[in-house]
Input
Amino acid sequence: MPLNNTTSMAVSDTLPVIDTHVHFDDDRFDEDRIDVYQRAQSAGVSAMVVPATMASRFNKIQCIANEFTHVYATAGLHPMFSKQHQPAHLETLGNTLQHCVAIGECGLDKPERHTDITQQEFWFEAQIDLARTQALPLIIHARNTVEAVILMLKRAALSRSAGNGVVHSFNGSLQQAHQLLDLNYKVSFGGPITYPRAHKLHKLVASLPLEAIMFETDAPDQPGIHQRGQRNEPAWISQVTAQAAEIRKTSVQEVTAASNLNAVQLFALPEQLLKLH
Ligand SMILES: [Zn+2]
Output
């Protein structure tokens, strides 16, 4: 997408960035989706990867991906809605994947909050199987479940050469992050790293290799500290990259270029996204 050179100075000296996880299809964007997209463009967002949460959203995401340039659809069954998923949805998922850059959002959610962990595991396992047969990367949700997710991924032993997937909004330990890296997964970070007390996240961002890290907003959820309580937007990803650069004592360009490269490789996005500046 052509970047508007007349926007602020901050944009012109910053590399365009791919938002690797944004729920751009969310109903909270229905009123002003075009404005949200334009603000994202003006803020230097070059592409968005839009994860699905349930089968009834697949069509809407496909439409949005067709309507907006460099918006990439995925399809998946989110663990938070495991009770609503039906076996037929797996077939719908399989049929949608030819237009998708990944399978997700799938995974496991907070066991203390749900009584359906067995169901969650069933849907996750089925999507891991699809990832294997379709050779697509996984977008994984692992809130308070990193250990269990790692166990399932270990057992699955996927071997996609461009990477098996990403654990998004990662909030596990450094050791767990390294286990994921060893299994050829990446981890991504968003708004939560902008909070000064997020010491554990800061340590992760500081110490993991750049080849393992990607950035996201998870908008409209998980806003950074400056937008606390507000609807999050892809335009605000620059706060995430700025924070990551500060933590790593390096330039925004360096962390952005690394995340972009990782995203282009993992999701097989057009290489032209790496040539924008
Ligand atoms: Zn998400």
In short: The beta strands are 17-19, 45-50, 71-73, 103-109, 138-143, 165-167, 185-189, 213-215. Confidence is low (pLDDT under 50) at residues 1-12.
